[in-house]
Amino acid sequence: MKKNLLILLSFVMVMSLFTGVVGAQENLTIQGSSTVLPIAQKAAEVYMENNNVNISVRGGGSGNGIAALIDGTTDIADASRFIKQEEVDNAVANGHFPVPHRVAMDGIAVVVHPDNPIDKLTLMDIKQIYTGQIENWRELGGADQEVVVISRDSSSGTFEVFNEIAVEGERVTPSALLQASNGAVKDTVANTKGAIGYVGLGYLDESIKATKVNGVFPNNSTVASGKFPIARPLFMFTDGWPEGLVADFINFVLSAEGQKMVEEQGYVPLH
After folding, report:
1. What's the confidence (pLDDT) of residue 23?
2. Partner of 226 at 20 to 30 A CA spacing, among 22, 61, 234, 244?
3. What range defines the domain where residue 203 resides?
4. What is the enclosing helix (H) or strand (E) of 157?
5. Helical ranges in 144-267 per DSSP H
6. Same structural domain for residues 128 and 216?
7. What is the rounded CA–CA span in Å between residue 18 and residue 47?
């Protein structure tokens, strides 16, 4: 009787260990660009529904995501800009080797409050607004109203691309209100009548109004064709060539199903 009980207990313990190994849940961490965030969140949601994994997705900006990859605290760094040479050097010195994976294309839409009659701007107009040379909408044919400049902070990849293309690297006016995410820019512009800001295509909705830039409206078609002047690729960076779960997730984002989700989130798919 005692012998049979010991055998039974041993069997139960072995089966428990076996079940724990087989049912072990893998973990994946993703951090970075608030522009890429909607893509990463949707892909993670669908991927987790079909796989026994836990995926943690956070924003914080492209710079913070790449910094986390350099520190080895994230598996995937989302970025709305390409990695800088200084960041590559720091990563390699820390034993990490960033590899870029382009996952989508995006336009940076210049947006104003829906009540603002201005619906088209040139790149020169935008530069003069963001460098403080234009301070009232009447200078552009609009209402006699102060221009409230909304920009992203320096850790933002969207800021870096916008600053390079639209502001030509010049200093943004010190009066600009800095926001930490696309969502924060959208909300501020939506609630401030004289405001102007810029967001990724995935953040456009009826609460804000996108303007034409150099006569071209920002949408998937004009970004894909190269007609819209403020556009950029979106990336997911991995530490070295991805393997295992990281590789499977990247491949899922790049698959036909994943690229359909990219388009559903308001961005431009690669195919």
Report:
1. 54
2. 61
3. 106-231
4. helix 157-165
5. 157-165, 182-190, 220-225, 244-254, 256-264
6. yes
7. 25
Q: How far apart are CA 239 and CA 15, in angstroms?
A: 36
Asked whether residue 10 is assigned to any structural domain, the reply reads no
Half-sphere exposure of 216 (CA within 13 A, CB side): 19
Q: Which two tokens stand for residue 96?
A: 């990490």
Q: Are 126 and 168 in contact (CB under 8 A)?
A: no
User: What CA–CA distance (Å, rounded) separates 125 from 140?
Assistant: 8
Task: Identify any residues that bridge with 71 across adjacent strands, giving them in sequence order.
Answer: none
* Rounded Cα gap, residues 56 and 3, in angstroms: 47
- The radius of gyration computed from the CA coordinates of the chain, to the nearest angstrom, equals 23
Q: What is the pLDDT of residues 137-182, one digit of tens each?
A: 999 999 999 999 999 988 899 999 999 999 999 999 999 999 999 9
Please say whether the dihedral angle defined by the alpha carbons of residues 64, 236, 261 and 248, taken in this order, is positive or negative. negative
- Please enumerate in sequence order all residues whose Cβ is within 8 A of that of 60, keeping only pairs 6 or more positions apart, or say none: 31, 32, 34, 155
pLDDT (tens digit, 9 = 90+) per residue, 240-254? Answer: 999 999 999 999 999
Q: Which residues pair with 98 in a beta bridge?
A: 239
Give 81's contacts (C-beta < 8 A, 6+ positions apart).
Answer: 62, 157, 158, 160, 161, 232, 235
Mark whether 86 and 178 lie in a shared domain: no
Model pLDDT, residue 106: 95
C-alpha to C-alpha distance for 230 and 218, rounded to whole angstroms:
9
User: Which CATH number does the domain housing residue 164 bear?
Assistant: 3.40.190.10
Instruction: Tokens for 158, please give them.
Output: 């969207």
Half-sphere exposure of 148 (CA within 13 A, CB side): 16
Residue identified by tokens 């969140």 is 41
